[in-house]
Structure formats: C-alpha cells, structure tokens
Design brief:
Layout lengths: L1 E2 L2 E13 L2 H7 L1 H21 L3 E4 L4 E6 L2 H18 L11 E12 L5 E2 L1 H9 L8 E4 H7 L7 E7 L8 E6 L29 H13 L2 E5 L6 H12 L7 E5 L9 H9 L9 H9 L5 E5 L5 H14 L4 E6 L8 E5 L5 H15 L12
Parallel strand pairs: 5-7, 10-13, 10-14, 11-12, 12-13
Antiparallel strand pairs: 1-2, 2-4, 2-5, 3-4, 5-6, 7-9, 8-9
Helix pairs in contact: 1-2, 2-3, 6-7, 8-9, 9-10
The structure holds adenosine-5'-diphosphate and magnesium ion (MG).
C-alpha cells in the first residue's frame, strides 16, 4: 500500500537484544565486545542467507526485515544455534546470549530505509519475553511457520507487552537440541491481567490459602459478589507462580452463558486447539496431562455443573495440575477444599474505598471537606 510516499506492508520482523548486556560489560568489557562482534557477524550472515535486510544494528540490538516468515524464524534459530555452539567453552555466567522476537505485522518503510509501525513495536517488545538463547514468536507469525519448525514450540500465553494495548499470544521456541532446563524462561507463561491498583491487607488470608493450595488440588474461594474472591485468587496465583512451570492461566467465566462451553473457554485460555471431529475436552485433557499448570476458574456460580465436570476430569487427567475456583457455591467435586473469603476489616475496607475514590477524583477527601 502506498500512502503519501510511505509504503506499508505485511512483513516478518526480527528484533534481538543481548540478555544482561550491562552486567556482562561490567564483568568483562573486552570479552563481551569481542563476543558481540562475533554475534553481529552471525546475524549479518544468517539474515543475508534468508534474504532479509538489516535495518539497524546499534549497540547490543538488532532489527531486521524478511520477505518470508519462515526466513525470519530460520535466521533466528540459526543464530541461536551458532551462538550456543560458539559459547560452549565460556563459563555460563560470561556467555553472551541474545533474546530474539519474531513477529508478522505491518511495517511502514521510508525511502531512507528506516521503518515504523505497530508491528515494529510488537517485535521489539516480544524480544523481552524470549528466554536468553531462545526465540519468542507472536501467534500471527507462529501460525504461518508451525508446520515446519525444527523443534517444539510452547505456548506462552497471552501476555501484555509494554505500550501495547491488547495482550499478544506468544510462542516460545528453543534452538534444536537445546534442553529446556538449560534455558530458564524469562517468566512463567501466564495470562494474568496486570493489576493497576494496589492490593490491600489480606496477609493472613493469603497465607492460609497458600497452605490450603499446597495440600489440595482444587481450592474454591467462596463468598458473595464483591467480597474480593477474584482479587485474592489473582494474588495467590501470582505468589505461587514459580511452582507452575507450564503456566498459570485465568479463565474468565462471568460472561459465559452455556455450561457446555466451559471446556472451550479453558482450551482457548491455554491455547489448546481441538482436532477436527473430536471434542475439545479430549485435546484439553491430553494437554494438561503431565503439565504443571495452575488454572483459575473465575466466576463459576452460574455454571456449577459444567465447572464441576471439567474440574473433575482435569484433576484426574493431569496429576500435576491445580485449580483455584471462585464461586458463590462450592463445586462439590471430590478433593475440593473450600475457603470462605471474609470481608475486609473495616479499616482496610475504608482504605480501599478512599484509594479508589482518589483514583477517580484526585482531590477526594475522606472527611467530606472540600479540597483547598
Ligand atoms: N484486598 C484488596 N485490595 C485491593 N483491592 C481489592 C481487594 N479485594 C478486592 N479488591 C477490589 O474490589 C473489587 C471487588 O473485588 P473482587 O475480587 O472482584 O470480588 P469478587 O470476585 O468476590 O466479586 C475489585 O475491584 C477488586 O480489585
Ligand atoms: Mg469475581
């Protein structure tokens, strides 16, 4: 598309950055600069080999465009593989490792070769979600290369990227032969929403709930609407996240009207796709098997039957999976532990009220007097 001399087109974008560059430079500037020079030469070589164009290679970062999605991924994986081979003799803490993000999105190219556009921002921030030594792909890109990836890719959830409004579905892939254990992923994959307000009180409740979740595989928070079940389950999930290496997933059921659609809702949160002609629950149970996953089923009360059935079969299929449910009534599934969420003590409830009122109206005063 041509617009005022600017060309916009769908392009595969690669963005890369050295993990822990400042730390590496502080520890060994000479060695790091030499390793960076080698890495840059590798990028130039592999990008050219895939018909790509280097847009920018300033400092410790790389930005490149490719005519094909497959070319971008092949270049990214080839660089990671070569870097891994080259750094094998170096002590782990001195190794130069890069994070690479690859995205398929709209790019505006100016006549001078510089590039702009939403797609470029997504690629640049995707990179921060990659494991050092790994490649993080957006789902848009993953969909067009998944049939021909040399190694396994793993869904890393819908994650928020800095300055990008909508969460982006991500896939992580490691170079062939790499063991996942060598590459601690940047974060536990998760789709937990960013909490924009501070969490008030609840120290005892969190500690109690954490203990219950240690002993039980299904913990149901009970209580009336507004008491704080959802918020408490998100805080608890955030706290225990490191124990669930395969991810922590929130499934919002409030707007779901049909209990038969519960498995579908869970599957889409986990990025599980059904096989043609088979029920989605089958793919879901297969996926959960052997995975360390924590699922949060939020707002179960109007779909008790559907949630109970799903919880029962998930707990049977996945021995390492755990569930947190929030509901006005228990699911009544074998193995369920319930926890009645108490109201916030008055002083904390007041604090919550005042903080929210201030957020809405910065000069709000709790004593009712007008601000000066
Ligand atoms: N401990 C807390 N600290 C801060 N905000 C809270 C806390 N508990 C609840 N809230 C807020 O109060 C509102 C209602 O809580 P929520 O968890 O949604 O209740 P429920 O799920 O029981 O209906 C939400 O806006 C939530 O963020
Ligand atoms: Mg709720």
């Amino acid at each position: 598309m041509e617009q005022g001399g600017l060309r916009q087109r769908l392009t595969a974008i690669l963005a890369a950055d050295v993990a822990g560059y400042t730390r590496l430079m502080a520890a060994d500037a000479g060695g790091t600069v030499a390793a960076l020079e080698e890495a840059r030469a590798l990028f130039h070589e592999q990008i050219a080999a895939q018909g790509g164009r280097v847009v920018d290679m300033a400092g410790d970062s790389v930005l490149a465009l490719f005519e094909s999605a497959a070319g971008a991924v092949d270049a990214a994986l080839a660089v990671q593989k070569a870097l891994e081979a080259a750094s094998r003799a170096t002590a782990a803490e001195r190794r130069l490792r890069v994070r690479i993000g690859v995205h398929l999105g709209d790019v505006i190219e100016k006549a001078d070769g510089s590039i702009y556009g939403h797609g470029v921002n997504v690629a640049a921030h995707l990179q921060t979600k990659a494991a050092p030594g790994g490649v993080c792909m957006s789902e848009a890109l993953y969909e067009s290369v998944k049939e021909r990836l040399p190694g396994a890719a793993r869904f890393a959830g819908r994650q928020r990227l800095k300055n990008i409004e909508e969460p982006v579905a991500l896939w992580q892939v490691l170079p062939e032969g790499a063991s996942a254990a060598d590459y601690a992923l940047a974060d536990t994959p998760n789709n937990l929403p960013l909490q924009l307000t501070s969490f008030i009180g609840r120290d005892d409740e969190l500690a109690d709930a954490a203990k219950l979740l240690e002993r039980s595989r299904l913990l149901t928070f009970l209580g009336t609407g507004g008491i704080g079940k959802s918020r408490l389950s998100l805080e608890l999930a955030g706290q225990v996240m490191p124990q669930f290496t395969d991810g922590v997933w929130l499934v919002e059921l409030a707007t779901l009207r049909d209990a038969r659609l519960v498995p579908q809702a869970v599957a889409s949160a986990l990025g599980v796709k059904e096989a043609a002609g088979r029920p989605v629950s089958e793919a879901l149970l297969h996926h959960v098997k052997d995975r360390q996953i924590l699922l949060i089923l939020d707002n179960c009360e109007h779909l008790l039957q559907g949630c109970a059935e799903l919880a029962r079969s998930l707990l049977q299929a996945g021995r390492a999976a755990k569930l947190i449910a929030s509901s006005r009534e228990p699911l009544r599934v074998a193995g369920e532990t319930t926890y009645a969420v108490p109201a916030l003590p008055q002083s904390e409830a007041e604090r919550l009220f005042v903080e929210r009122a201030r957020a809405a109206k910065p000069d709000f005063r709790a004593d009712g007097s007008a601000a000066a």
